[in-house]
């Protein structure tokens, strides 16, 4: 009887402290999108990690700039946003890594570019997505004007510009390019016209950016603990295969 009471008490305590966490994200398949199974690979990881700690994750999807802004506002119900690359900021604190994404350049098959390091891209017109973090070296060279950065609101627009020869190449995650070419009807005419350059810029780690306040820091720790209880690589690889 005493053991039964202990079990009931433990269940009551776990239920009592269970909370719902709200985060923002964007349409960035296959990592995140409200129409995908489990809302994407990164969302599947995040939900599993929070569930391992007894909590539920609810993700709302917005255009990227708005997703970041809403997560940064004081007293917002949104405690952070994801998936994000780590960068220098005082507004957010980052979780432990929740998978990786191969970042490189999509190029026109008829006009491939040759480079070994980012420095070799000087003078090229390279497409980027507005407000995305790329690599520090690439972003610094674009900021200085050494590389001609061409910013657009989404990856699919960059693929179209590369395919039509309007820019030399564009920064994109290889998994994102594969997904877009296989599922986006508006890219059908470019499916055989573009490809990933064989040189990768970086295998970027993915994170949740939690708002840098007491509440955000609290949930950062809870989430990180949850990550230790799940197999992140298995979830990601099964989703992306």
Structural write-up:
The chain has eight helices and eleven strands. It has 241 residues and is α/β, with parallel strands linked by helices. It has two domains: 19-99 and 206-240, D-Maltodextrin-Binding Protein, domain 2 (3-Layer(aba) Sandwich); 100-203, D-Maltodextrin-Binding Protein, domain 2 (3-Layer(aba) Sandwich). Strands 5, 6, 7, 8, 9 and 10 form a six-stranded mixed beta sheet that branches. A five-stranded mixed beta sheet has the order 2-1-3-11-4, sandwiched between helices. The protein is globular and about 60 Å long.
Write a brief structural summary.
By secondary structure, the protein is α/β, with parallel strands linked by helices.
CATH architectural arrangement of the largest domain: 3-Layer(aba) Sandwich
Q: Percent of residues in helical segments?
A: 25-40%
Shape: globular
Unreliable residue runs: 12-16
End-to-end separation in angstroms reads: 49 Å
Tell me the count of domains. Answer: 2
Could you state the oligomeric state of the chains shown? single chain
Protein structure class: alpha/beta
Q: Might you state the CATH topology name of the largest domain?
A: D-Maltodextrin-Binding Protein, domain 2
The CATH class of the largest domain is: Alpha Beta
Biggest beta sheet summary: 6 strands, mixed
- The secondary-structure element order is HEHEHEEEEHEHEHEEEHH
């Amino acid at each position: 009887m005493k053991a039964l009471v202990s079990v009931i008490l433990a269940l009551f305590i776990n239920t009592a402290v269970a909370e719902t966490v709200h985060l923002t994200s964007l349409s960035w398949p296959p990592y995140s999108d409200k129409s995908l199974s489990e809302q994407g690979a990164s969302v599947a990881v995040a939900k599993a990690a929070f569930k391992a700690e007894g909590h539920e994750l609810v993700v709302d999807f917005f255009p990227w700039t708005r997703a970041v802004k809403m997560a940064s506002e004081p007293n917002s119900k949104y405690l952070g946003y994801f998936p994000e690359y780590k960068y220098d900021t005082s507004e957010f604190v980052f979780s432990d890594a929740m998978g990786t994404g191969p970042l490189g350049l999509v190029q026109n098959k008829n006009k491939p570019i040759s480079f070994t390091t980012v420095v070799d891209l000087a003078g090229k017109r390279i497409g980027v997505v507005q407000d995305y973090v790329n690599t520090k070296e690439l972003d610094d060279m674009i900021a200085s004007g050494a590389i001609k950065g061409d910013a657009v609101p989404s990856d699919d627009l960059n693929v179209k510009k590369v395919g039509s020869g309007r820019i030399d190449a564009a920064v994109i995650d290889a998994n994102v390019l594969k997904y877009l070419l296989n599922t986006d009807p508006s890219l059908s005419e470019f499916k055989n016209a573009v490809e990933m350059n064989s040189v990768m810029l970086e295998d970027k780690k993915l994170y949740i950016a939690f708002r840098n306040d007491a509440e955000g820091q609290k949930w950062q720790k809870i989430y990180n603990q949850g990550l230790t209880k799940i197999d992140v690589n298995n979830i990601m690889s099964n989703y992306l295969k």
